[in-house]
Amino acid sequence: MDIVQASNLVKRYLVGEQQVTAIRNANFNIKQGSFVSFVGPSGSGKSTLLNMIGGLDKPSDGKLLINNTDISTLNRKQAAKFRGEHIGFIFQDFNLIPVLTVAENIEYPLLMVQNWPLAKRQQRVKTLMEAVGIAEQANKFPSQLSGGQKQRVAVARALASQAKLVLADEPTANLDHQTAFRIIDLMKQMRDDFGTTFIFSTHDNKIMNAAESLFILEDGEISEHRQTATEGERA
Ligand SMILES: Nc1ncnc2c1ncn2[C@@H]1O[C@H](COP(=O)(O)OP(=O)(O)OP(=O)(O)O)[C@@H](O)[C@H]1O
């Protein structure tokens, strides 16, 4: 099943009196459970695509179905509910809440959107902290963590509400290479364990090859859809 279906997708922005076309006529489908990357230079449209897929920004034209829902038809409140139920976000600067502990940061989306009972929340937070290897830091605050540890918390938080789809905009941009690969491997492990679809963006050639398939963006257009080597072929 395709979790993302985009046809003739267009995004234009008005900057003063000038129109900027950030995405021109993009067509692509992404299968449930896949591990894909949008790749391209700065300004090629990666964030714009991820924001539309995440229901943070509306297409100017074309059609975008997420989990068979046409998200351009949702109003703000419906879009927020849809995001809370279906989509997790990971950002390059981690976006953790500084006054909350690691455990509380992971629990936060469950409190805000899902309203789960306490025992169920605590069990879910514990499972996720163990899955991403951060259980020993449960009571620390973000300022007491390394970049890699912060991004582990962000991965756990994105998975908290059992989102079907996790979007990560340059999740490794603020990490050294070794840590970056560990985070990508962790995301892939989470995909294997939970069946979550991951879409991440990067302009880093080394990181992009960790994806199973790549959409190459050039000046707002998808110029190529490339399958990367499987783990076996690369070894
Ligand atoms: N809110 C906005 N208002 C006006 N123009 C925008 C807006 N967001 C993006 N753009 C323009 O759309 C184009 C694509 O930008 P986008 O941020 O999607 O690229 P990107 O590939 O994510 O770049 P980067 O790697 O630098 O984050 C650029 O020309 C950008 O200036």
UniProtKB/TrEMBL annotation:
Q: Which GO terms describe its cellular component?
A: plasma membrane; transmembrane transporter complex
Any idea which UniProt keywords this protein has?
ATP-binding, Nucleotide-binding, Transport
Listed Gene3D superfamilies: P-loop containing nucleotide triphosphate hydrolases
Read off the SMART domains from this record. AAA (SM00382)
Protein's name in the database: ABC transporter ATP-binding protein
Q: Which family does it belong to?
A: Belongs to the ABC transporter superfamily. Macrolide exporter (TC 3.A.1.122) family.
The record's GO molecular-function terms, alphabetically, read: ATP binding; ATP hydrolysis activity; transmembrane transporter activity
Residues in ABC transporter domain copies: 4-235
One Pfam family hit = ABC_tran
